[in-house]
């Protein structure tokens, strides 16, 4: 019954109900706690975002579709996503965080907003670099959004349309940065499609 379920410990969920996967137990515990203490729920609508949404929509949207199978198998919904630890990500979901960190400097796909601020400084646009802070510009949107280009970035940086030479310089540098990343991403996608099971 619901009353019994509210009182079950993690070990009882495993031994008595056969829920062996640690993330499945964590997901159930979170849902139980939500019923026990509704006032503690930070995001009331989070329970509406299912594991299907996380694996089939959210991960591809942020440029990480390669992890969709792991997330789907672990039934990671938005509630569980909000409580995943680094250990969970590495041990159960196949995300090698240390490896991703090593690639951050060379792979603009995973660059944060701060990376783009630093990059703008490195290409002699320090005068406009600070305007990028809080602009929402980050690696995934730059690499994955087809309409994102030098003019888009120039506008985000507050470079006036009259500064054509600076805008041209920015576009050239941005193309040099993003073209290899887009090509690599496109190649990986094609390979996944070619070797996907029918």
TrEMBL record:
It comes from the Eukaryota. SUPFAM superfamilies: SAM/Pointed domain (SSF47769). InterPro entries: Kazrin, SAM, SAM/pointed_sf. Residues 1-38, 56-102 form the SAM domain. This is Kazrin. The lineage of its organism: Eukaryota, Metazoa, Ecdysozoa, Arthropoda, Hexapoda.
């Amino acid at each position: 019954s619901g009353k019994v379920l509210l009182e079950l410990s993690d070990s009882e969920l495993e031994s008595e109900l056969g829920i062996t996967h640690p993330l499945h137990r964590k997901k159930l515990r979170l849902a139980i706690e939500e019923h026990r203490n509704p006032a503690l729920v930070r995001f009331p609508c989070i329970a509406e975002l299912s594991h299907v949404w996380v694996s089939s929509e959210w991960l591809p949207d942020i440029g990480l579709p390669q992890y969709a199978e792991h997330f789907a198998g672990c039934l990671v919904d938005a509630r569980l996503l909000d409580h995943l630890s680094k250990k969970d990500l590495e041990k159960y979901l196949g995300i090698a965080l240390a490896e991703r960190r090593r690639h951050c400097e060379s792979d603009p796909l995973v660059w944060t907003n701060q990376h783009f601020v630093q990059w703008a400084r490195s290409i002699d646009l320090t005068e406009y670099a600070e305007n990028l802070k809080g602009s929402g510009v980050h690696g995934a949107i730059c690499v994955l959004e087809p309409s994102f280009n030098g003019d888009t970035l120039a506008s985000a940086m507050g470079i006036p349309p009259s500064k054509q030479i600076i805008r041209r310089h920015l576009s050239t540098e941005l193309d040099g940065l993003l073209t290899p990343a887009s090509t690599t991403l496109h190649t990986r996608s094609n390979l996944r499609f070619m070797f996907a099971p029918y």
